[in-house]
Design a protein that fits this description.
alpha+beta, three-stranded antiparallel sheet, 2 helices, 37% strand
């Protein structure tokens, strides 16, 4: 699955896509697509979380993990770009990264 949250001139838009694939083997076809408007306060909260934890995380995982879920987070805010990729960060010491990714999911789901 993937989540995308964008600030389009003050309008916060969240997009969710889910595929029927096999993880890193085959993405498969899209089986769910949802777009909805989110609150600016959600965007501000998420931006603060990204600013406090995300920009300093290494792009590539220093651990060599050959299986598990791949979590990729890309951020582009005010012309500042960064990407981080981790395999099963909730199981391999990626607590800050896991919390940030889960915050994105909760923001989309209005939790």
């Amino acid at each position: 699955y993937s989540y995308r949250i964008e600030n389009k001139n003050g309008q916060i838009v969240g997009t969710y896509n889910e595929t029927k694939g096999l993880g890193g083997y085959d993405a498969g076809r899209r089986i769910k697509h949802e777009v909805k408007e989110l609150k600016i306060s959600d965007w501000n909260s998420l931006s603060r979380k990204i600013d406090s934890t995300f920009w300093e995380i290494q792009t590539h995982d220093p651990n060599m993990i050959l299986d598990g879920e791949e979590w990729v987070l890309e951020a582009l805010i005010d012309d500042k770009y960064h990407v981080v990729s981790r395999n099963s960060p909730d199981n391999y010491g990626g607590e800050k990264y896991t919390k940030l990714c889960k915050k994105i999911i909760k923001t989309f789901n209005n939790e």
